[in-house]
Design goal:
Elements: H1 3-23, E1 29-33, E2 41-46, E3 49-55, E4 62-68, H2 70-87, E5 93-97, E6 100-105, E7 111-116, E8 119-124, H3 126-130
Antiparallel strand pairs: 1-4, 2-3, 3-4, 5-6, 7-8
Length: about 150
């Protein structure tokens, strides 16, 4: 097998790895060269992530690898999760007095802020109030023909 055939086979494997990473949304960029490396490994810290040059002692290809965007990926996951949560239509919270419904709470979201030690703490109660399989505690609720609490 010629060197060109070996490199072509390596390129196919690299392509498969890059496709798998893209499919799984892994932030990854790589630059391959055919230059003989001048050193074994060097690491640099850069704003977008860390760069490292890795090379075998036998010469051949070297890899400049950028593995950055971890924070950006996590932020994007969190943003997508919030969008998905907001897109969900929740069943209403229902309080009955006997057989009659007298309190019906239907909302896209429910959050509260508590002032504790001079700082506001925000708490999202949406999933614990409306989430799938959740049974909110309604003890202390009451209602009659003139008021509900």
């Amino acid at each position: 097998m010629s060197a060109q055939e070996v490199l072509r086979g390596n390129d196919e494997v690299i392509g498969q790895v890059m496709s798998a990473m893209k499919t799984q949304a892994v932030p990854y960029a790589a630059i391959y060269t055919a230059l003989q490396p001048s050193r074994e490994a060097v690491s640099l810290s850069v704003e977008a992530g860390s760069f490292s040059v890795e090379a075998g002692l036998g010469g051949g290809r070297s890899l400049l690898q950028a593995r950055g965007g971890y924070r950006e990926k996590e932020r994007e996951k969190e943003r997508q999760r919030r969008i998905k949560e907001k897109a969900v239509t929740y069943a209403p919270v229902e309080f009955k007095e006997g057989e009659d419904t007298c309190i019906l709470l239907w909302a896209k979201g429910l959050s509260v802020s508590i002032l504790r030690s001079g700082r506001w703490e925000d708490h999202d109660l949406t999933l614990s109030t409306f989430g799938e399989g959740v049974s909110p505690k309604l003890h202390g609720s009451s209602c009659d023909k003139s008021k509900a609490k």
